[in-house]
Every structure is written in C-alpha cells, then in structure tokens.
From TrEMBL:
Compositionally biased intervals (Basic and acidic residues): 317-327
Organism: Leucocoprinus birnbaumii
GO biological process: lipid biosynthetic process
Single GO term (MF): iron ion binding
Protein name: Fatty acid hydroxylase domain-containing protein
Pfam families named in the record: FA_hydroxylase
Keywords from the named record: Membrane, Transmembrane, Transmembrane helix
Keyword Zinc: no
Subcellular location: Membrane
Amino acid sequence: MSFLNSTLAGGLNPAEQLYQGTDFSSLNWVEKQWAAWYIWIGNPIIATGLMSFLLHEIVYFGRCIPWIIIDAVPYFRKWKLQPGKVPTPQEQWECTKQVLFSHFTIELPAIWLFHPLAETFGMSTWQVPFPSWKAMAPQIFFFFFFEDLFHFLAHQALHTGILYKHIHKLHHKYSAPFGLAAEYAHPAEVFILGTGTLLGPILYAAFGGDLHIVTVYVWIVLRLFQAIDAHSGYDFPWSLQHIIPFWSGADHHDFHHMAFTNNYSTSFRWWDWACGTDTKYREYKKKVKAAKAALKNATQDEKDAFERNLMAEVEKDGQRAEAEAEARGLLGGKAKVQ
Ligand SMILES: [Zn+2]
Ligand SMILES: [Zn+2]
C-alpha cells in the first residue's frame, strides 16, 4: 500500500482527497483493494459505476457457466425437472444475446446512476473500513424479504393484459428455463423487477439506516445466485430448498414456467402459500408423490412416461391460462378465449 501513502504527498485526485487521514495499516486486504480502486480510477462516480457493472456481468455469466456444463452432461439429466427439455447451444446463444442487450440498454445506465443515488440517500460508497458481518446480515435479510414481496406483487401485475403481452411474455418464451434465462426479459421488465432489488437498500438508507454499498454488493451477488439457480431447471437432493423448507429454489420457479400460473415470488414460498397462488403447484406435487408410490414396482420407463404425461397436461393448462392472461384487461376484466 506504499503507493497509497506516496500518492497522498503529490497532486491529489478527487478520490485521493477523500482518503486523507485514513489509516491504511489498520485495513484488511479487501478494504485496501477497495480504496486502491477508487484512487486508481480517480472519480468516485465512475469507480462505483464500473465496479457495479463488472460485478454484475462477472457474477451473472460466471454463475451460468456451471449450469451450461451441467446441461451438456447427460449424467445430470436424472435431476432435471423437465428432463425432455434440455436447451440447445443455439437456444443458449440466442438467450445470451437478448440478456446482453438488456444489460447494455437498461442495466448499464441504471448502474451508472447508482453512485449519485446512493450518495443522495446517505449510503457509504468509497469509505473504508467495511461494516462487520453482524451489521450486514440483518440488512441483507431485509433486502431478501423486501424484494421477494415486491416481486410477488409486481410479477402478478406483469401477468395481466398488455403488461403480459408487451413485456413479460418474452421471459415466458422458455417453458423449461435454464440458468442464462434468469435475466432473459424485456428491458422494461428488467427495470420493473430490478427496482425490487435496489429499492430495499435505497429505502433502508433513506430512513436513516447505516448502509455501505459493499453490503448492497453482497446482496446483489446472493440475489443473482438465487435468480440463476431458480432458473437452472435442476432440483438436486442437496439443493437449498431441501435444507430450508421455505426457500423457493428451482423446483418452485420451474413450475411457474411450465404451468404459467402459480408461484410468483422469488426467494421464499410464504407469500404464494399465504395468498393461495401455489395451489396448482401443491396439487401437482401431491399427484407426482402419489404416482411414485403407486408405481413403485413399475419400470423406470413407465414412471418416466407417467411424469411426461402429467407435465404435458400442466403445460397445456398453462397455455390456456397464458391466452387468458393476454386477453384480460389491465384491471383483471373477464377474458374471452375460445
Ligand atoms: Zn411470470
Ligand atoms: Zn422466470
């Protein structure tokens, strides 16, 4: 960190001026790199904007890589929720292009505005040291809770009339999603649902909460993992929903894509359960469980055929529900579908 101290002696850029009087020897390695980044870039707005954008891109595509590999290895097929629907490389590439389009049109400017917005609401950005894990954990839980509720409500609105037809329909292109499809959406949807991710931290800071942007970064990384894993299409015996029963996971969201209705939340199952928007899902799970018990002595082929038929039935119902949603007015007027 000697260059940090030496730069303080010469001409100071705006970032260097911020760190005057900071005792760098008391910082840990990550905190030192954080300060070095702000000093190297020289402009806090660009430093925060660039770091936010790079973090999002690296984590998003980095987290998708294991799922692309898993899709290419037949051994993992036994844990695929809709085994007959493995994405082709062509589908994955088409999806990547749309995701990049959304990232560069909506997310890039939004991320760029995040530093001024964060500063306006009193969030710490360039400051070191970071808050402790004990301070961060309850804040991150609040962001999870807030986003889940926001998404539960906004997602249901996106399932009606023109909002569905012109915005959310794109995300429902894949009835069997895969990791890369997590942010496969219309730029307006990325903006609407992205609000749920960022509004929690903004409100928390606006109401006087002591919040550092590094906590927001940890939250965004966890949220990206949640979204990509929920779209992965795989339910492993070690998946989080088998450890935390109220965690949604891929099993919950895959059904949303297959059946079109039910399961509107992101991270937790409680709102769908409390509001009765998971009844079809729970019925389906019950049927699968009962059939598995009844078909105990059947061959694997017979069991697979039964599950395929059940899925086809659910998907057909979903297509009907989709046509109804498109025909329905914004305020939920009756649909006329033949
Ligand atoms: Zn949806
Ligand atoms: Zn989805």
